[in-house]
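so i finally got all the pieces together for this one. its two components total, 521 residues if u count the protein bits. some of the lines might not be protein, just check the labels. i wanna see the whole assembly predicted at once instead of chain by chain like last time, that was a mess tbh
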Amino acid sequence: MTTALYADTPVEVDAEGFLTDPEQWDEQIAERIAEENGIPELSDRHWLVVRFMRDRYLTTGNAPSIRALGKESGVPVKELYALFPKGPAKLAAKIGGIPKPRGCI
Amino acid sequence: MSARRIVVLGAGTGGTMIANRLRRRLSPEEAEIHVVDRDDEHVYQPGLLFVPFGLAHLDEIVRPRRRQLRRGIEFHEHEVEAVSLERDEVQLADGTLLPYDVLVVASGVRLQPEETEGLEGPAWNERVFTFYEPASADALHGALERFERGRLVVNLVDMPIKCPVAPLEFAFLADWYLRERGVRERIELVYATPLDGAFTKPVASRHLAGLLGEKGIDLVTEFNAGEVDGDAGKLVGYDGRELDYDLLVTVPLHGGAAYVERSPGLGDALGFVPTDRHTLQTAAKPNVFALGDATDLPISKAGSVTHFEAEILTENVVRFLEERKLLAGYDGHANCFIETGFGKALMIDFNYETEPLPGRFPTAAGPLPLLRESRLNHLGKLLFQSVYWHALLPGRELPGLGPTMPTAGKKLAATT
């Protein structure tokens, strides 16, 4: 575990840059993480997805998979990939300050 | 006290095992047991992998569901309309109502090719196949026999899928089969997966990626298939990457049984049933249990998992009826053979906490090598079909194969 500095705030992150304590998160940190990962500005649609992921994790202890995200967040899978290129669930979790979604087995 | 009523939804591996085990455990005075399935065809699913290569035929791997159930179990051949958790009642498609004291959800998964754009287009069962479904596995056999040159792409659309190693086994066997036919050098083999490696678990993933490399199979990772263009022979990823194919072998998206979605409070967004990982009681209601592929448990959807769960679940259904504390006894134990072609196979054994590691797996007939190719493992895989019909489904104990993972023989500190 290492410490990263986002918007002048030190936060604990794992080897892949996911926050280990969701409580250390705030919106400015989210914007910095997004920037670092190729999203210069978070739109309302980005925020909708990030908040959905975060709320779901905080209430259930699990972050949804990309398919569940597509079915439940109201943002279709195709658009999710346009918003968060490569890995929408992974990237939205990182920006939302929650641990990396556990891949299914 | 009058007999209680247990209703089991699904007569596949899990439903059949749990019904038979409960029937042995409880007298007819103690419990009535009802099992529901929409048809009377029990498929030995591990056999489907061999059908495309002509190594198994559908008539050898499909048997009547009814005949696998012990006497004293009532079988209802109907589609389930819905479960009412409020009224403790199952409604069948013909309107029959089956009230229950205990419900066991064992209805497995449903393939959802319709969720991937273009997958079921005109090329379906012409150039695009899945061996996860008997008719398509059979049609694929014909296509492979005629395949002379070009590009064969094996793709799993997204997790979770049944038997996560099966698409890898298919790729290994395809390599072997095409070499036997003498056409391998004219055919490019590609394995495309949404995972970031060959498999989900790091140590096994490295071993399996190594095997793909040795066999000259290209590995494409983090490929999320969004669309199939059947006419053009293109598999298109959500990120815009395109994979051309002459023959596409797909593993379509998986979801829970359709009735789960029609039953308020029973399943999650994908139709899987949220289930306690150690007791197998569902989150839906205390008198509802689940096992096998139907659950949302973070472990492989596989027959071995279902078998190990069935032991714990039998105990817990009995404890529930007797109003005793449930046994938190399932540790996520999974065990499978991975066919690698040329008469060899690997074996992996793992649970929630321990990933598949090298070493040896103790069995009554002697140890089997773990994570290493051997003929013994291949023979084990072939012999297993007989064990399945004659010992596993009837609910007999298999010595040495229990619900908790053995640690003896495993190189637990191993990292390579």
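Chain B has three domains: 4-111+255-321, 114-249, 334-392.
The radius of gyration of chain B is 21 Å.
anyway lmk what u think
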